[in-house]
Amino acid sequence: MMHALATRSARGRLARPLTHGLLLTGGFVMLVPFLWMLTTSLKPTRLAFSPPYLLPTTFEWHNYLEAWNAAPFLRFYLNTAIIATGITLGQVLFSSLAAYAFARLHFPGRDLLFLVFLGTMMVPLHVTLIPSYLIVHWLGWIDTYQALIVPRLVSAFGIFLLRQYYLTIPVDLDEAALIDGASRLHVWWRLILPLSQPALATLAIFAFLFAWNDFLWPLVVTNDPNMRTVQLGLAMFQGRYGTRWTLLMAGTVTATLPAVLAFLIGQRRFIQGITTTGLKG
Amino acid sequence: MPQAFAAAWRRYNRKGDLTAAILALAPALLVFGLFNIYPLLDTAYLSLFEWDGLSPQRVFVGLQNYRELLSSGVLWNSLRATAYYTFGVITLSIPLGLGVAVLLNSGIRGTAFYRTLYFLPVVTATVAAAVVWTLMLDPGSGLLNVALRRIGITAPSWLRSPTWAMPAVILVGVWKRLGFNMVVYLAGLQGIPREYYEAAEVDGAGRWALLRRITVPLLAPTTALLTVMALIDSFLLFDQVYVMTGGGPAGATDVIGYLLYRHAFRYFNMGTASAIAWIMFAFIAVATLAQWRLTDFGAKAVT
């Protein structure tokens, strides 16, 4: 027994540095594209194609200015911020309302309707792309914010996530408020919404990241360069400045940063959201 | 009749539930109805026509769009490319995700740091990631080929080679997916009781044996779930292909999500594109139902 313990701890002492070594090597590989993007964005243009290195040795910040002058990135930012804010607010509010109805209200056909809502998760954007585009076109919404926001105002994933959360809030609280004369929607606004802030924050992070990184739908419903989102603008920028690596990478850093920051701030909730539902948005 | 309706309304609306439900569900009903349920049905309808999406004239052709697709090489090429991508991403990102999760679960320090590091690509926009990788895979000055040249390997010109373009697209897919798999596996690993390992260690089992005989079998449901999720996402692959290869060279990366887009918004064959959409839907619906069976999602949905 003593012998077994001794060898195990010896193995443990050896295994620890080995584990760190493996994890650091793998982590470094994961990080390489980020390092390359940052370093290239800070190189002098004439050295763009020189032998690559991973840590910046020059800091040509004016590459960023040049990139921002070559394409209206500020406008792309503004568009994406408006769209992401609209989608996030809408998903939090409307998903919460629907989740409340499914968790608390009694009405005929409730379970069937809930299944239909969940069923919409089975229908990805690709499948509905053409009629959705035709509807937006028919409404005269091409190149408008509504086209980019309205179809994404509700999320079935969000309804599911919030409903699960609402089922954990004691019904006694609702009953007490109802006896005091509050209406059903009043209870939602005054009681359920404040109590479900953690779940709402989780949904908000999912919604924001989704909106920030979205590509196919904005590609289809916008033509006007002034209505482009950051990702769309970046793809077009690549088409035009594909050989100007320093500018292209400066633009890419710009396009990546907000989502990465949003994740770093809300990472605990985000990862919890994935592991508790076993799903993603 | 109006009286009967009013009576039913009163019966169901005793505590104001019905009024509240209608108000609470109206936004969701409107959005899902207009941009999900109706389009799904309309896609089926449109798939029976020949139409450019603009002209008032639609020509009814029955199932001809489907027949043409199934007998032409284009659809099969896309399905083959999609299957190739799916297979590549699944066989690489799942074992690697498990490997990292097991290492992180061994009680070492700095778990949060490593987890962030590996998860970062998951939240990076696919377009941005694809742009960076396109440069890194550049045959002349890209990081990968320069590094390989230095150790004496002549690397292919990835995205311009019909053979190597898909492996390059898969590489980006794996890079973006590994962290997600890791996080889900970590949650699964925390559900395995320590006693299992302790008992096996007393019996003299080594690390490898523990992994093979305890960890992998007990995580089989997680693995199945991650496989189905990767399968669904692979069918929707678009951004990477749009940025990196445009479906080429020679159709090597012309996956089904991209084929659909091309037919709809480059060639304006709305009928053919709609038929492709329904073929996609059939695959995805089956995979999603499988996903729901693998999670307690189905059970949760009706409790």
* DSSP strand tally of chain B: 2
| Percentage beta strand of chain B | under 5%
Largest sheet descriptor of chain B: 2 strands, antiparallel
Please indicate the percent range of residues of chain A in DSSP E strands (runs of 2 or more).
under 5%
Helix content of chain A: over 70%
User: Helical proportion of chain B?
Assistant: over 70%
Per CATH, which architecture of the largest domain in chain A?
Orthogonal Bundle
Distance between the termini of chain A: 51 Å
pLDDT averaged over residues of chain A = 85
- pLDDT < 50 runs, ≥5 residues of chain B: none
Mean pLDDT of chain B: 88
CATH architecture classification name of the largest domain in chain B: Orthogonal Bundle
**Considering the protein shown, what is the CATH homologous superfamily of the largest domain in chain B?**
MetI-like
Number of domains of chain B: 2
What's the short story on this structure?
Chain A has 281 residues and is an all-alpha fold. Chain A contains 13 helices and no strands.
What's the layout of helices and strands?
The complex is a heterodimer of chains A (281) and B (303).
Chain A: H1 2-41, H2 62-70, H3 73-104, H4 110-119, H5 125-138, H6 145-149, H7 156-166, H8 171-179, H9 184-195, H10 197-213, H11 216-221, H12 230-241, H13 245-277
Chain B: H1 2-12, H2 17-46, E1 49-50, E2 59-60, H3 64-71, H4 73-104, H5 111-123, H6 126-136, H7 143-150, H8 165-189, H9 194-202, H10 207-218, H11 220-235, H12 239-244, H13 256-265, H14 270-294, H15 297-302
Antiparallel strand pairs in B: 1-2
Helix pairs in contact in B: 2-14, 4-8, 4-11, 5-8, 8-11, 11-14, 13-14
Describe this structure in words.
The complex is a heterodimer of chains A (281) and B (303). Chain A has 281 residues and is mainly α. Chain A folds into two domains: 1-33; 64-277, MetI-like fold (Orthogonal Bundle), CATH 1.10.3720. Chain A contains 13 helices and no strands. In chain A, helix 3 (73-104) packs antiparallel against helix 10. The longest helix of chain A has 40 residues, at 2-41. Chain A is globular, with a radius of gyration of 25 Å. Chain B is an all-alpha fold. Chain B has two domains: 2-46, no CATH class; 64-302, MetI-like fold. In chain B, 73% of the residues lie in helices and 1% in strands. Chain B is built from 15 helices and two strands. Chain B has helices at 2-12, 17-46, 64-71, 73-104, 111-123, 126-136, 143-150, 165-189, 194-202, 207-218, 220-235, 239-244, 256-265, 270-294, 297-302, and strands at 49-50, 59-60. In chain B, strands 1-2 form a two-stranded antiparallel ribbon. In chain B, helix 4 (73-104) runs antiparallel to helix 11. The model of chain B has no long low-confidence stretch (mean pLDDT 88). Chains A and B meet through helix 1, helix 3, helix 4, helix 5 and helix 7 of A and helix 2, helix 4, helix 5, helix 6 and helix 8 of B.
